[in-house]
Amino acid sequence: MAFLVSPGVNTSEIDLTTAVPSVGTSTGATVGFFRWGPANTVIQVSSESDLVQKFFAPDSNTAASFLSATNFLSYGNDLRVVRVCSATTDKSNNATSNSSHNITVMNDEEYFLNNYTGANANVAFCARYPGALGNSLRVSVCSSEATFDSWLFAPYFDSAPNTSNFVVAKTNNSTLKDEMHIIVVDEDGVITGTANTVLERFSNLSKCSDARATMARAFTIKKFYIAPQNGFTGSDMLQEAMLQMLGDKLSQQLLQQELHYTHQLSQTTHL
User: Fold this and answer.
1) Rounded to whole angstroms, how far apart are CA atoms 100 and 106?
2) Residue 268: which of 102, 89, 133 has the closest Cα?
3) Domain boundaries in the chain?
4) Given pLDDT bands bounded at 50, 70 and 90, which one contains residue 213?
5) Cα(260)–Cα(140) distance, rounded to whole angstroms?
6) In terms of pLDDT, which residue wins out, 168 or 209?
């Protein structure tokens, strides 16, 4: 501490503020391999927990990219991340309900441009993003009131699928049975750490491609882009749906069969 050895004036500046001012940080950018999340598009990440939520926790193949990102986020809060997929470090296909057919949907924009309209005759479901993580997903559909009680996942729904208000309003017929329930399960436990954890539930979806929520509780399985409907019951990391619907094929199959439609999603050969 400074002091005077002879008479004089000593000036001291003392900061009396009680709050730490917010200091802006520079924007960073990184391109790397991650286990989950949208690929080939820029995603803003604000913290390490946000990084995990959007791109999942790392494994040995993705640790370098993940740690590089977290290093910046330890002192910054504006990181732009682009996920890339490689056949050698991170499987580049989306897991599908038909392992004989490849599907690649890198991000939401690509889904809406290439898969939202038109039917896919071979694949009814695929994981929302590429990566081996999707192999742990199981999708089960109940489209029949008669078989609801014997459905493994019936306890997760309030009642059996029936006829939507939309169809009743359009046809004045309450016996057409256009509704279905869909449930997504972490069958292998890779995502949540506990096998058979329910990730997402979608109740009373309509098989009619023109159904609208504004007229009923039912949503069409084609027009309704799969997203949590009855609350999120799985890992907090997965706040967006892990599932994509591909075209009208599922509606056609369910209308004809009225069976439980259960799939373990799996990837095919790497692209």
Assistant:
1) 19
2) 102
3) 28-83, 108-264
4) low
5) 7
6) 168
Which residues of 107-196 form beta strands (DSSP E)? 125-127, 137-142, 179-186
pLDDT of residue 39: 94
- Strand runs labelled E in 151-249: 179-186, 197-206, 219-220, 243-245
Give the distance from CA 1 to its chain's centroid.
Answer: 59
Give domain 28-83's CATH architecture. 2-Layer Sandwich (3.30)
The dihedrals phi and psi of 94, each to the nearest 5 degrees, come to -85, 140
Instruction: Please state the separation of Cα 206 from the chain's center in Å.
Output: 21
What pTM did the predictor assign? Answer: 0.72
* DSSP code at position 181: E
In angstroms, the Cα distances linking 247 to 116, 203, 209, 220 are 6, 19, 10, 11
- What strands lie across the sheet with 42-45, from one edge to the other? 28-32, 79-83, 42-45
Tell which residue, 139, 124, 133, 129, has the closest CA to residue 253: 124
Cβ neighbors of 17 (< 8 A, separation 6 or more) are none
Would you state the structure tokens that stand for residue 260, as one six-digit string?
């439980």
Tens of pLDDT, residue by residue over 220-241, are: 343 333 333 332 222 322 334 4
- Predicted confidence band at 130 (pLDDT cuts at 50, 70, 90)? confident
pLDDT at 264: 55
Between 212 and 24, name the one with better pLDDT: 212
Query: Hey, what are 224's tokens?
Result: 């309704």
Question: Can you state the angle between helices 63-73 and 48-55, rounded to 10 degrees?
Answer: 150
Do the beta carbons of residue 125 and residue 244 sit within 8 Å? yes
Distance from first CA to last CA of the chain, Å, rounded?
Answer: 68
CB 245 within 8 A of CB 221: yes
